[in-house]
Amino acid sequence: MSLYSRQETYSRPSADTRSVKFSERYVMGKRIGDGAFSTVKECISRQDGKKYAVKILAEKNSLYHHEVRSPRTRAAANASHPNCVTMVDVFEEERTYLVLELLSGGSVLDRIVESEFFSEKDAILVTGSILKALEYLHSQGIVHRDIKPENLLYVSNDPSSPFYHTVKVSDFGFSKHDCQVLKTACGTPEYMAPEVLETTSSGYDEKVDMWSLGIVVYVMLSGFFPFLSSSRPALFKKIAAGDFTFPSPYWDCVSDKAKDFISQALRVKSEERISASAALQHQWMTEGVSQCETKLHG
């Protein structure tokens, strides 16, 4: 499910895209991948020949399509940070086209599928990239609301590259800017925080992203979800109760620091959940792990 490729410096075109067609500014290229609500293709700028990714939105999910068009989502998508995928252009025609920077490394999900699970050393590097992005986003009043491995993209797939472990947060379709209280239930069920699923909840805030990150870290280190069930209602009940464990033998060689990091991110009460800034200072992030602790699954 590789979505984007290549790290470059990007500048937003000065022309008003509302009066210009996508095909006037870009040449459509090969298909890169398909998401739940969109198709992603490569495109080339007619102006300078640079390659970008274009996300073409499907109309079938009205909530996603509505959210991605909203001013608060657009403001969030314009976030400028080294660990956030840059949105370059937007075209609203018969379909909506989102032009994004192109990355070559594939997604975190790709690497989980390839290796089954990560060493703690690699997981720490990925988690650091995500936390830096979330710390910035949350400081700007932006909540992503759909943190998951598919939306975490590597800058490079070259092991010799200094950017091989660098990750950028992508897909701001459900993100919101400058909202003190959010109430819409959206995102991906397996990564949703309890307060998002709670119909009687008074709302939620940026801490939902930290819950999702906790799920991501758990999956990176084990290759499976902390909350598993054969039905959605049963899954939601487990999430609401925070009912998860670190089963043997899969977690026997994982450090206590990693387990504590996950446990602090997966606190059911959002006010007790670790923040992005605090997570960056957690022992697992600052001290790392010894060589023996990085060998997982026996």
UniProtKB/TrEMBL annotation:
GO terms for molecular function: ATP binding; protein serine/threonine kinase activity. Transmembrane segments: none annotated. Keywords: ATP-binding, Kinase, Nucleotide-binding, Serine/threonine-protein kinase, Transferase. Pfam families: Pkinase. Gene3D superfamilies: Transferase(Phosphotransferase) domain 1. Residues 26-285 form the Protein kinase domain. It comes from the Eukaryota. The keyword Mitochondrion does not apply. InterPro entries: Kinase-like_dom_sf (IPR011009), Prot_kinase_dom (IPR000719), Protein_kinase_ATP_BS (IPR017441), Ser/Thr_kinase_AS (IPR008271). ATP binds at K55. Belongs to the protein kinase superfamily. PANTHER family: SERINE/THREONINE-PROTEIN KINASE. This is Protein kinase domain-containing protein.
